[in-house]
Design goal:
This protein is mainly beta. 4% of the residues lie in helices and 58% in strands.
Length: 793
């Protein structure tokens, strides 16, 4: 049986239906469906989308006709199905053919598509029909326009003839695309046009020919919009990328690039992802570099791969290699890339068994040499094996009332290789037991640890060979004892060194107020005592050890160095005072302040080669503050002060204000005596109506020619630009300059126009903007796109 819903004032009399009355479309409110009602096929059979049949609802001031033949609706006529509606002055419904014809101010809404014209003929069963001289809107693309003829070919395909297309709002019609035909295929989620021309302000400005563009964000194969770039190092760059959607979990991007001062470069990226493995392969290749003396081939390769071999086993591979020492400074495109000097290659296997964590890693480096600032290549791990186990006992104290007992064991064996320095095998065993005790606000943790090392030299090292290969004398570096032509070098050594530490804290709380809301403030005094006896290690070689970065985490730890080549003697007491404010509304820490200082009971005698021995009894005072006043405003402060000499040794300050997307201001200052002294400002902000300013200014005040390129006096990186949001298009112009080597600076200019929903033309500054400006937001993505049922009627 067919179910027909007819809204009219008259009654149904046999097969003939006739009624005339005012329509109140709120009549259905408050009605309940009978629980026994089963909806059958609608009046027209299939739904507008070609899917499952749905009931059809008819409205009109006049409804007449035969229920099994033809029904005519006049005066505010309307035909509805789930997800679709048609309105017109009159609608003639042919029940035999399963079609209808609408005349006079016709509007059609169907799953986010909206059409308005003079007349419409449609067969909803197969979604075939014709709309003449109509306007349209596609919510999925945020697009609108008009066409002389709109033909519905099938439920998910629409053909438009003599059509205009634009993503501009009606009140700001900046650009449009005029095409002979436009085919919108919602199954493939792509739109294709022929004979297209770009119009700006109604004036043709650029022939586009035949092109296709997506109607959604789903990945699909095809050429991407060409991109352009221009900088002082490479000249003009033109890239024509091709994207191949190999499979739902694999894709390939090929990016041939014409570089005016270098030649033609071929670049690519292959990405893959499976349930148990995934990664990416990247490469760049430039044959016969026109700017090099010998016209050499230039290349870069990069691999990232992760694979799960079992529930608790994972394999990892990372590799980056370039053809020559200057590749990153020439082609890096940023200060961070240009400043890299060591490129890692590592293979690792991690697993867990019987409560132990096992890892084996092989690691090597490619050193990018610079005669102005020479470096010695790091040591290779060939390989390094580690096994670690950490456990927390529930309670060993039911009789003795002691407390939870923590234990940790770590074993490490490393085969250390180097092209010019000595090679050897190093075995390290570390273990520790910690006894925790909590009594009210008092928390204590007493730990006893042991560090045991055995080293055996396997191959000799040469100071002259190191000087010849790397251009630096190892006797003046950390590697002083890593050459066997030094009489003080050792064939092997063994050491066992214990460490005792006591960490005591007090946690006090009180109710407080923060920004007018309830909060909790804490006061947390802390004392940390560490005792490690002295063992002479002055002649031991150094492979991968260095001083820890000065900070509160280092001051409140029981280690002085990173790595395992030195275990420093310690006899000191550290005092710290921390206060926190925790919001009672969100539970977040909105303010944290800490002040700490260490008192030394003895002079530290174990040091690294070339390191100055400490002779004072008090450490520097370290202070740190972090603030999150609101979700928009946050900041931090750090200071390091030496009371004995009344000198500031280091400090930093930063603040970030992000009230909403597209508005961000951040500023930071970093200082460390005789090392770096720099300020960094970045912003993105609206300045006038639809104009946005964007920029970054990173300047170093350090005056030291021997410092790295990130620390020499002058502008490290500068970026300044403007963006304009035209409603349906965005214009960007950006100027950039950054240090690319010890003697060179690279300047670049970007100019780009983005047509929303269509593509981008010009040089692409987005990578530079996202890298340089924290929380940068594309201004045409500040507001959410229209919903699928934006035009629902």
């Amino acid at each position: 049986m067919r179910w027909i819903a007819l809204l009219a004032c008259g009654a149904l009399s046999g097969p003939l239906l006739a009624a005339e009355c005012p329509i109140d479309r709120n009549l259905g409110q408050g009605l309940r469906l009978d629980s026994t009602l089963v909806l059958g096929p609608g009046l027209l059979g299939q739904s507008f989308s070609g899917g499952k049949s749905q009931p059809t609802y008819l409205f009109g001031r006049e409804i007449s006709g035969l229920t099994e033949d033809q029904v005519t609706l006049k005066g505010e006529a309307e035909l509805r199905q789930f997800g679709a509606s048609v309105r017109a002055q009159s609608i003639e419904v042919s029940l035999v053919e399963g079609s209808f014809r609408a005349e006079g101010e016709v509007t059609l809404f169907r799953e986010g598509e909206f059409f308005k014209g003079d007349s419409l003929t449609l067969m909803p069963q197969v979604m075939r029909g014709l709309f003449s001289s109509a306007e349209y809107e596609f919510s999925a693309m945020n697009a609108r326009g008009s066409a002389q003829r709109i033909e519905f070919v099938q439920p998910k395909r629409t053909d438009l003839k003599d059509v205009s297309f634009s993503t501009c709002p009606r009140d700001r019609p900046a650009w449009a695309m005029r095409s002979d035909t436009l085919v919108v295929d919602q199954i493939r989620e792509v739109a294709s046009s022929s004979g297209s021309v770009l119009l700006w302000g109604g004036v043709p400005v650029l022939p586009l020919g035949d092109l296709s563009f997506p109607t959604s964000d789903r990945r699909r194969s095809g050429f991407l919009m060409p991109t352009y770039a221009a900088n002082s190092e490479l000249g003009l760059e033109i890239t024509v990328p091709y994207y191949w959607n190999v499979a739902p979990n694999r894709d390939l991007t090929l990016s041939p690039k014409l570089i005016s001062r270098r030649g033609v470069q071929v670049a690519g990226e292959f990405r893959y992802l499976d349930p148990d493995w995934g990664g990416a392969l990247e490469w760049e290749y430039l044959p016969d570099d026109q700017n090099s003396v010998d016209r050499s081939n230039r290349s870069l390769g990069r691999i990232h791969h992760r694979q799960r071999l079992g529930d608790d086993t994972e394999f990892r591979l990372q590799l980056t290699r370039v053809s020559d020492d200057r590749y990153l400074s020439d082609f890096g495109g940023s200060i961070l890339a240009s400043s890299q000097r060591t490129l890692p290659a590592s293979v690792a296997l991690d697993t867990q068994r019987y409560g132990w964590q096992f890892s084996i890693i092989g690691q090597d480096f490619q050193l990018l040499r610079n005669p102005i600032s020479p470096l010695i290549a790091p040591y290779q791990y060939a390989p390094k094996f580690t096994a670690a186990r950490e456990s927390v006992a529930s309670d060993i104290s039911s009789l003795q009332n002691l407390g939870p007992l923590d234990s940790i064991v770590r074993l490490e064996w490393t085969s250390l290789n180097h092209p010019t320095l000595l090679d050897g095998d190093r075995f390290v065993a570390m273990g520790g037991i910690g006894l925790r005790k909590d009594v009210g606000p008092f928390l204590t943790n007493t730990r006893l640890g042991v560090h045991a090392t055995h080293f055996q030299r396997r191959a000799d090292g040469s100071a002259s060979g190191t000087n010849r290969v790397f251009g630096i004398d190892p006797l003046n570096t950390l590697y002083r004892f890593n050459v066997t032509d030094d009489a003080e070098s050792l064939d092997s050594y063994q050491r066992i060194i214990p460490t005792l530490s006591f960490d005591g804290r007090v946690l006090l709380e009180r109710d407080a107020k923060w920004a007018g809301d309830r909060a909790t403030q804490t006061l947390e005094p802390r004392l940390l005592y560490v005792k490690t006896p002295y063992r002479d290690q002055s002649r031991y070689p150094v492979f991968d050890t260095g001083p820890q970065t000065t900070g509160l985490s280092q001051l409140l730890s029981d280690r002085v160095y990173t790595g395992n080549d030195r275990v420093a003697d310690q006899d000191h007491l550290t005092g710290a005072l921390t206060s926190r404010v925790v919001s009672g509304v969100s539970g977040e820490e909105v303010l944290t302040t800490t002040v700490a200082q260490r008192h030394y009971f003895a002079t530290q005698r174990v040091i690294l080669p070339g390191e100055l021995s400490r002779d004072d009894r008090e450490s520097d005072v370290l202070a740190e503050l972090s603030l999150r006043y609101s979700r928009a405003l946050s900041g931090s402060l750090f200071a390091q002060y030496t009371p004995s000499s009344s000198r500031w040794q280091a400090g930093s300050a930063s603040v970030a204000y992000t009230p909403r997307a597209g508005q961000v201001v951040s500023a930071s200052y970093r200082y460390q005596r005789e090392t770096f002294d720099s300020v960094d400002l970045a912003f993105q902000a609206p300045v006038h109506r639809n104009w946005y300013a964007v920029g970054r200014f990173n300047y170093s005040f350090q005056d030291d020619d021997s410092a790295s390129i990130l620390q020499r006096e002058g502008l490290v990186e500068g970026l300044l630009g403007a963006e304009y949001d035209g409603g349906c298009w965005v214009g960007r112009i950006v100027l950039q300059q950054f240090v690319s080597s010890a003697t060179n600076k690279t300047s670049a200019i970007f100019f780009q126009i983005e047509f929303n929903g269509l593509g981008r033309i010009g040089t692409d500054p987005l990578a530079a903007l996202k890298r340089s400006v924290p929380n940068y937001t594309m201004i045409n993505q500040i507001h959410s796109p229209p919903a699928r049922f934006e035009n629902f009627q």
